[in-house]
């Protein structure tokens, strides 16, 4: 199933050698690090008049997506858009969708894709940045297809934090963020949704050669050292070839 998932465990060293290693690992550079490819004719989103560089960040609940996104923001200047945070913000605004979103999150289920994609689109369009981490999205095939229809562009790369289930449960139960869904019953449902709906999407990107699988175990620093080469390679490419 994970035939084409790229492992970063051997991807270390300077930006230039990181680039070479990533290429050996099967990542399609021309596509992944170009801002021009796979944009629909309509070119629907373009902050600052440029096509943005989009990274999807996937992994189960507690796999470290949010923590690592914060590190990428700090080191490489990306804007972090967490689909979960956008939905929680929508609940706090008391808009018409708020109650539906809250109930869906409480049940650990997936909010209708149009709702989530519109929030992501609005956040991208209102940003002055042109490089984004979209965390916790797409959660299912319907999310993925709706994003492509509304945004008109596939992601440039997809990170997947791979972490054993017991470790993820331990992290979620100990993080104390006051979330309505960080309880054992909802976590069980979220893990079920992850396996049945999210893994097929992850596999889809693996088949397309866009997925970078990262070992999500260890300390925050250890995991970030596995993430760093991806963005060092991107920065090298953008500096030397003028892409996003
Ligand atoms: O990613 P995070 O753990 O913050 O997501 C919390 C919840 O938000 C999910 O369990 C799900 O109910 C909802 N969500 C969603 N669609 C997404 C991302 C999150 O419905 N793409
Ligand atoms: Mg999160």
What separation lies between the terminal Cα atoms? 32 Å
Residue share in β-strands: 5-15%
Radius of gyration: 17 Å
Report the helical percentage: 40-55%
Bound ligands, named by name, code or SMILES: cytidine-5'-monophosphate, magnesium ion
The helix/strand class is alpha/beta
Contiguous runs where pLDDT drops below 50 for at least 5 residues:
1-15, 35-43
CATH class placement: Alpha Beta
> Could you give a short account of the major beta sheet?
6 strands, parallel
> How many domain modules?
1
Q: Give the topology string: H per helix, E per strand.
A: EHHEHEHHHEHEHHEH
CATH architecture: 3-Layer(aba) Sandwich
Which strand order do you get reading across the main beta sheet? 1-6-5-2-4-3
CATH homologous superfamily classification: P-loop containing nucleotide triphosphate hydrolases
The number of helical segments is 10
Describe the overall structure.
The protein has 244 residues and is an alpha/beta fold. It has a single domain (6-241), classed as P-loop containing nucleotide triphosphate hydrolases (Rossmann fold, 3-Layer(aba) Sandwich), CATH 3.40.50.300. Helices cover 52% and strands 12% of the residues. It has helices at 15-24, 29-32, 65-76, 83-92, 98-107, 113-125, 141-151, 165-174, 184-207, 220-241; strands at residues 6-7, 53-59, 79-82, 131-135, 157-162, 211-215. Strands 1-6-5-2-4-3 form a 6-stranded parallel sheet, with helices on both faces. The protein starts with 5 loop residues before the first strand and ends with a helix. The structure holds cytidine-5'-monophosphate and magnesium ion (MG). The site of cytidine-5'-monophosphate has 18 residues, from helix 4 and helix 5.
């Amino acid at each position: 199933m994970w035939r084409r998932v790229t492992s970063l465990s051997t991807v270390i060293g300077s930006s230039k050698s990181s680039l070479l290693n990533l290429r050996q690992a099967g990542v399609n550079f021309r596509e992944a690090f170009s801002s021009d490819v796979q944009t629909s004719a309509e070119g629907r989103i373009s902050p600052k008049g440029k096509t943005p560089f989009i990274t999807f960040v996937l992994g189960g609940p507690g796999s470290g997506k949010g923590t690592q996104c914060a590190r990428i923001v700090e080191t490489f200047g990306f804007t972090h858009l967490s689909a979960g945070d956008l939905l929680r913000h929508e609940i706090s605004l008391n808009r018409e969708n708020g109650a539906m979103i809250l109930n869906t999150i409480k049940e650990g289920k997936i909010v209708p894709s149009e709702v989530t994609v519109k929030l992501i689109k609005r956040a991208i369009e209102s940003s002055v940045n042109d490089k984004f981490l979209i965390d916790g999205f797409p959660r299912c095939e319907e999310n993925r297809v709706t994003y492509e229809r509304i945004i008109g562009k596939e992601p440039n790369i997809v990170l997947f934090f791979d972490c054993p289930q017991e470790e993820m449960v331990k992290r979620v139960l100990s993080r104390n963020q006051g979330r309505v869904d960080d309880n054992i019953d909802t976590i069980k449902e979220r893990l079920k949704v992850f396996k049945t709906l999210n893994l097929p999407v992850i596999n889809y990107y693996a088949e397309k050669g866009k997925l970078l699988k990262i070992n999500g175990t260890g300390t925050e620093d250890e995991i970030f050292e596995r993430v760093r080469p991806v963005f060092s390679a991107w920065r090298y490419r953008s500096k030397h070839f003028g892409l996003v």
